[in-house]
DNA sequence: TTGTAAGCGTTATCAC
DNA sequence: GTGATAACGCTTACAA
């Protein structure tokens, strides 16, 4: 910058203003500066700028890990939304370890990020380290694995809605005995999916039948085992809603082993839209978790807080509407003319309980 | 820092030295400073430090996107290795767009990163924007999608070796007519996998039979179609080496449709270790691309260059040894006692051609 | 519209 | 072993 100033015989102030498009700068001057900057291949130093302004163009992400289908997609969404807004992203993994999570927060604080996005590690039960962030006035948004409560900013998938629409769909296909392969009920996601399932049944006037609900850890072979048990019932179900795709896959494979046709004899639906659900035969109906939208929604919320710039901001919890993907494993009706397109943008459903 | 200095009645210099563990500092003083820093919850400002030192603790990553199985795993490996070495990582996506890739490089330059890791966008055919990086003396390492040549630092998977070990394995299983579902030969990865396949055949004294090599874009249905064609041959193959897992899956499904047993009637092997290969029945033998090791190897190389600190560094190309994962789709022999464990560390095989 | 000068938080240099 | 001071590159009152 000093070079440019010297060469043009103006002050660095003018250079700075021209480069950052300040209002009180002559268009002529601006052009000259920009041209010379290009010629000299001038690279602004964001460190210096951030240091002076006390605000960087960096957002921090803390995730348990960058593997599998979910987190990479969310990070993808975050990076995309952030860079669109002129921010870049520092990414940290906690490896499901609170201590590491704490360290990551410290690092992000000292990197002077403008805001932080966090999905909690599985071992985080004490949330005091987030107080440090809050006390520094640093915008903070949780996603997916969140701190519960209405005094935090958070974005999650509406799992109950997911269980509900999935079960409704099976009902619409004419199924009347719908079993549920449920996950560990101490985890909110599985509890909510089950609740949505029950909601749909009740709404349809069907009885809640505990013999049709089987609990497991949702692994592939547990899905197979579940299906085996269900098919051995005096009156076997005509549909299975599994709270996870691996479990649904096991169920599908077991059904085939027993010579049943899917979806004619038994319809199957899973949850999560794992990559493999489209390559099975038939492909598996499932619920998309809108990973990317979750990332984008989290960034939107974070930017709102950043832009509030210290002014009081009422914490908000956003629940994303899950998307039902109807595929061969549950599609038993003749094709119907398509309805209006679903609005693909992330939805605010309401404040969480 | 100023506060600490005042409270202890010493200069900021002393504080700085105590905090950064400078040699000329009294252990007593050091303890006092550290204690007080803890009490006041002192957070170093890495921006200021980096500005002053002219070097940040940040590495930049540019990838086409963070989706699928490959890139997230590599990023995982990069972040893990980087944070172990005290670095953090800024991640940028090029979305397979050169222009964006160029912009990303500019951003990373202006963020004063200590080094850059790049996997090229598919639309990058002109490499001039990397000159800017080089001319600034900034350490640069390519991975997976690299600039060819021996004047760049690069880490790749040895695809030819992958094709070779895969085919060798099928030979060891007693197969003698081994077909190959090949990918587009203008892409190096597919060309190399095919070459490895041919190498193994030649080594075994088997003829190269072009009627057993089918070319496609490697999609699932193309794998099925390929298998159909192969099975219609006057003398059908007893094994298929597919250059991709989706293609292998299609082949597997088609074999089942035609009532063949896998691996008894026809053995199948894929490439990439996609997640779904373990959930099929039988699970699919494949080649692991060592994504995580690739990330780690790239960081190791980058750190070496960083530590050379401007001193001449001879560019190096590293080829990682792929790992054969033998699974049900090709395992036709009785189990053999396990040999010595394979060294799991990333391997330097040699300079690329 | 432009310039002057101070300062963001740290560290390297040089002197003591 | 410790301190004073300048400097890293940029922005922004305040003044002109």
TrEMBL record, chains A, B:
<protein>
    <submittedName>
        <fullName>LacI family transcriptional regulator</fullName>
    </submittedName>
</protein>
<keyword id="KW-0804">Transcription</keyword>
<keyword id="KW-0238">DNA-binding</keyword>
<dbReference type="InterPro" id="IPR010982">
    <property type="entry name" value="Lambda_DNA-bd_dom_sf"/>
</dbReference>
<dbReference type="Pfam" id="PF00356">
    <property type="entry name" value="LacI"/>
</dbReference>
<dbReference type="InterPro" id="IPR028082">
    <property type="entry name" value="Peripla_BP_I"/>
</dbReference>
<dbReference type="InterPro" id="IPR046335">
    <property type="entry name" value="LacI/GalR-like_sensor"/>
</dbReference>
<dbReference type="Pfam" id="PF13377">
    <property type="entry name" value="Peripla_BP_3"/>
</dbReference>
<dbReference type="InterPro" id="IPR000843">
    <property type="entry name" value="HTH_LacI"/>
</dbReference>
<feature type="domain" description="HTH lacI-type">
    <location>
        <begin position="1"/>
        <end position="53"/>
    </location>
</feature>
<keyword id="KW-0805">Transcription regulation</keyword>
């Amino acid at each position: 910058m000093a070079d440019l100033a010297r060469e043009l015989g103006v002050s660095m102030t003018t250079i700075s203003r021209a480069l950052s498009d300040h209002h009180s700068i002559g268009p002529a001057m601006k052009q000259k500066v920009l041209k010379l900057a290009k010629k000299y291949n001038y690279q602004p130093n964001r460190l210096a700028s951030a240091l002076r302004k006390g605000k960087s163009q960096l957002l921090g992400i803390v995730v348990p890990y960058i593997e599998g289908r979910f987190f990479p997609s969310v990070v993808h969404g975050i990076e995309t939304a952030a860079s669109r807004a002129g921010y870049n992203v520092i990414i940290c993994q906690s490896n499901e370890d609170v201590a590491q999570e704490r360290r990551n927060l410290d690092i992000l604080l000292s990197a002077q990020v403008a805001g932080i996005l966090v999905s909690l590690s599985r071992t985080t039960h004490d949330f005091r380290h987030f107080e440090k962030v809050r006390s520094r006035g640093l915008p903070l948004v949780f996603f997916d694995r969140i701190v519960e409560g209405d005094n935090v900013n958070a974005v999650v998938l509406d799992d109950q809605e997911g269980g509900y629409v999935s079960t409704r769909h099976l009902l619409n296909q004419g199924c009347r005995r719908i079993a549920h392969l449920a996950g560990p009920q101490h985890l909110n996601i599985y509890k909510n999916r089950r609740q949505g399932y029950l909601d749909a049944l009740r709404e349809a006037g069907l009885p809640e039948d505990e013999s049709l609900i089987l609990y497991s850890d949702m692994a592939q072979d547990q899905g197979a085992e579940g299906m085996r048990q269900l098919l051995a019932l005096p009156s076997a179900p005509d549909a299975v809603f599994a709270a996870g795709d691996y479990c649904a896959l096991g169920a599908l494979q077991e059904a085939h082993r027993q010579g049943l046709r899917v979806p004619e004899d038994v319809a199957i639906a899973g949850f999560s839209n794992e990559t493999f659900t489209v390559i099975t035969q038939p492909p598996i109906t499932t619920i998309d978790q809108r990973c990317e939208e979750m990332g984008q929604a989290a960034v939107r919320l974070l930017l709102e807080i950043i832009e509030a710039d210290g002014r009081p901001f009422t914490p908000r919890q956003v629940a994303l509407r899950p998307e039902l993907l109807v595929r061969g494993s549950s599609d038993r009706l003749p094709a119907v003319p398509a309805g209006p397109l679903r609005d693909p943008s992330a939805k605010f459903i309401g404040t969480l309980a």
